[in-house]
Amino acid sequence: MDAPEQRFQALLAYAREDPDVLGLYVFGSRAWHDGLQDDHSDYDVAVVLRDGDSVVDAFDARWPYTHGAPVEVARSTLSELRRLGEYGGLDEWSRYLYTRVDLMIDKTGEIEPILREKQTVPEEIRDRLVRDRLDGYINSTYRSLRYRMVGQQTGARLDAAESIPYLLTALFAMDARVRPFNKYLETELGERPLSDPAWHADRLLPRLLAVLEGSVEDQHALFRDVDRVSRARGFSDVVDGWEPDVAWLRGEAAYRPG
User: Fold this and answer.
1) Domain 3-118 class, CATH top level
2) pLDDT in tens, 103-139
């Protein structure tokens, strides 16, 4: 047993015995169990504690967080766990962390449903999230194409790149799913394809890479698929909010006179 494995097993034993520890789960590449981890993968371990400053202080003294350590220990109280990764919060970016976890300790049975809820986009915010990110994608695409028309190639490429996170968040949210980190995007699309064939890995990923390379043709083609799917899913008004430029964004008309 190597040193990281020994430290992880020591933490696991500690967590099982300490009454102030309510739960422990592994996240990141070690939680996938499908080859994304390797012998050099670290252990990303989350420990859930009872609420209380003294509880947190005692745990931090025994198991301090060290970035880049072979066993990275992230702790939260149960109350903090309920808030982590919530949409609209500063740590919204982290929500995907909870979609693939290996829950090893759950002493009260409260942690599993909290984690399960974080693995989807809540119904009550799904519509708003899709609309916001879809509009962000169209905005960035519009600016990218306009900058290219006036010779601002740097701005055009940067806005093309900026459009992609907006788009991916919207597409996954349409299916009530959390947008994956870029590292896991290809695997997610391969294992659990999005509902529309335009977003299957063999079609979407080459197109995204072509957009990053500066292909105007692929920007227009991507927008045409976005337009079609958005209308089919009830978001026509978001697209139509960009009239009279929608046909131009599709690549089917010249840009209107300024």
Assistant:
1) alpha beta
2) 999 999 999 999 999 999 999 999 999 999 999 999 9
The bridge status of strand 43-49 relative to strand 71-77 is parallel
- Residue closest to 142 by CA, chosen among 38, 36, 238, 22: 238
State how far the Cα of 170 lies from the Cα of 179, in Å rounded to an integer: 8
User: Rg of the chain's alpha carbons, rounded to an integer?
Assistant: 22
Distance CA(228)–CA(83), nearest Å, equals: 35
Write the pLDDT tens digit of every residue in 47-69: 999 999 999 999 999 999 988 88
Answer for the pair 172, 178: CB distance below 8 angstroms, yes or no.
yes
Strand partners, 46: 25, 74
- 137 and 208 in contact (C-beta within 8 Å)? no
**Tokens at residue 96, please?**
């995907």
At residue 220, what is the residue type?
Answer: H
What predicted TM-score, i.e. pTM, was given to this entire model?
0.90
Contact 242, 138 (CB under 8 A): yes
One-letter amino acid at 169 equals: T
CA-based nearest residue to 148, from 138, 158, 136, 163: 158
**Domain residue ranges of the chain, discontinuous segments joined by +:** 3-118, 123-250
Could you tell me if 171 and 192 are in contact, meaning their C-beta atoms sit under 8 angstroms apart? no
- Alpha-carbon distance 119 to 77, whole Å? 19
The whole-chain average pLDDT of the chain stands at 93
